[in-house]
Amino acid sequence: MLARKQPEEGKLPAGVEVAIGDLLEPVSVELAMQGVDKLFLLNAVVADELTQALIAYRIARRVGLKHVTYLSVFKVEQFRDVPHFASKLAVEQALREFGVPYTILRPGYYIQNDAMLKDALTGPGIYPMPIGTAGICAVDTRDIAEAAAISLVEEGHDGQTYDLVGPSLISGPSNAATWSKLLHKEIKYTGHNFDQWEQQMRTSAPGWSAFDLRAMFQGYFDRGFASTGTEVALAAKLLGHGPRSYEDFAAETAVLW
């Protein structure tokens, strides 16, 4: 695992080896790849995401890694105007162009994003994420982790692209109803006023990030971000079990709150 600084003791499972480095510092990345034969490349949503990803990928090619599993995003080619989606699409194209064996994982909206909504849900009783009413694809991050491990450990995944989706779609009203039941209080979906949401995001995040995420959510609303039953079945086949549901995540999280 590559980290900018040594994690606190107990933060990682026993046996995890940590390399200290930075994806914008090529020398540290190359040192971290010494003795490594496969790479799981996951980039944070940052302003220089594409630069970070391509530095890591080019070094992986140079040192002769045997496989790269890259975390992209669902329906990435339909959201070329969303900055972090466009970055991921460019990395996908690089993976397909050069000779390193690869697997691309394309997850939907991360279910665990909503773990950050504790104050909004337990306080004023609102579900503030502007995900719309039509229903979008969402996936549990534990399923993403399993899929990544499978692609790196098992044979037969070279050159494959996998959509990672949950068993059903989520929406603002349905998520509000789920939390209402679990928290025994009325939770209201605040809707999808994207100007207002971006303005609120700017109070706690950089302007570029608020703009990027607003573009993503508005893209969901304007173009759709729904998965199909076929995609659910293919995800289950890869995982060896049915994908985890939003309702199960919410129930587990509510107990912790």
Summarize the structure.
This protein is of the alpha/beta class and 257 residues long. 44% of the residues lie in helices and 12% in strands. Helix 2 (49-63) packs parallel to helix 3 (83-97), helix 6 runs parallel beside helix 10 and helix 7 packs antiparallel against helix 8.
Sheet with the most strands: spatial strand order = 3-4-5-9
What's the shape? Answer: globular
Cα distance, first to last residue? 30 Å
Characterize the biggest β-sheet. 4 strands, parallel
- Structural class call reads alpha/beta
The fraction of residues assigned to DSSP E strands is 5-15%
Please report the number of helical segments.
Answer: 10
Mean pLDDT: 95
Task: Give the fraction of residues assigned to helices.
Answer: 40-55%
H/E order of the elements?
Answer: EEHEHEHEEHEEHEHEHHHH
Strand and helix map with partners:
Elements: E1 2-3, E2 19-20, H1 26-32, E3 38-41, H2 49-63, E4 67-71, H3 83-97, E5 102-107, E6 109-110, H4 118-122, E7 126-127, E8 138-139, H5 141-153, E9 160-164, H6 172-183, E10 188-189, H7 194-201, H8 207-223, H9 229-239, H10 246-256
Parallel strand pairs: 1-2, 3-4, 4-5, 5-9, 6-8, 7-10
Helix pairs in contact: 2-3, 6-10, 7-8
Explained architecture:
Helices cover about 45% and strands about 10% of the residues. By secondary structure, it is of the alpha/beta class. Strands 3-4-5-9 form a four-stranded parallel sheet, with helices on both faces. Strands 1-2 form a two-stranded parallel sheet. A two-stranded parallel sheet has the order 6-8. α2 (about 50-65) runs parallel beside α3 (about 85-95) and α6 runs parallel beside α10 (about 245-255). The longest helix is centred in the last third of the chain and has 17 residues, at about 205-225. The radius of gyration is 19 Å and the shape is globular. The two termini are about 30 Å apart. The mean pLDDT is about 95.
